Amino acid sequence: MEIKRNIQKGILSEAMYHEIALIREVAEKRNLSEKDLAKLYEEQIIL
Question: Which superkingdom (predicted)?
Fold first, then answer.
């Protein structure tokens, strides 16, 4: 519960920042837009 609250407040751990950097790196290599990433995220939530 506390982790979710921190994420909503914009407080992220070092590991989260690292994961975001990795996602951005892969997205750039694959030429994915923010819309593409949002669509992929939504598809994963549905699963």
Answer: Bacteria
Distance CA 18, CA 32 (A): 19
Cβ contacts of residue 46 below 8 Å, gap of 6+?
none
Instruction: Report the C-alpha gap between 47 and 6 in whole angstroms.
Output: 25
Tokens standing for residue 16: 């989260």
Q: What is the domain range of residue 31?
A: 2-46
Residue 32, classed as helix, strand or coil, is coil
Q: Structural domain tally of the chain?
A: 1
